[in-house]
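Why do we care about 3D structure at all? Because function follows from shape, and shape follows, mostly, from sequence. That is the central idea of this module. The next example makes it concrete: a single protein chain, its amino acid sequence, and then its structure expressed as tokens.
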Amino acid sequence: MAASPLYLLDTGVVLLLLRGGSRGQAISDQFALTDQTYRPLVSVITHGELNAMGIRNNWGASRREAMRNALDALVTVRIDAGDIPKRYAEIQAAVQKAGSAVGENDVWIAATASCAQATLITLDGDFKRVPNTLLSLAHVP
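And the structure:
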């Protein structure tokens, strides 16, 4: 039996799953996120982005708790693990050489997915600027 694919969830995907609406459920179903052998991964960058969003939007205690529970259900990968800083530099250089721009946090997330050999599930079209030799991408429109 083949192993389940390994996924890393971008911040927007985690947010949709947290909200629990039909779009988040459709993504969960499409990638069988609850039926995988391996729990999905998330970059520590996503923790920061979601916490910042909670502060900006004055999330209450119950919503912050739901966020913590959702993140705890995933495997968090730190950006100083393994070759992630080196891959960050490679991705950043490749994108800049192509005359494109990708947000710094997105480059860290892409580097994390790349080094984990995980497919990045994202709503963000900016990741399409990262060469597919450096990132396995599942873009959900």
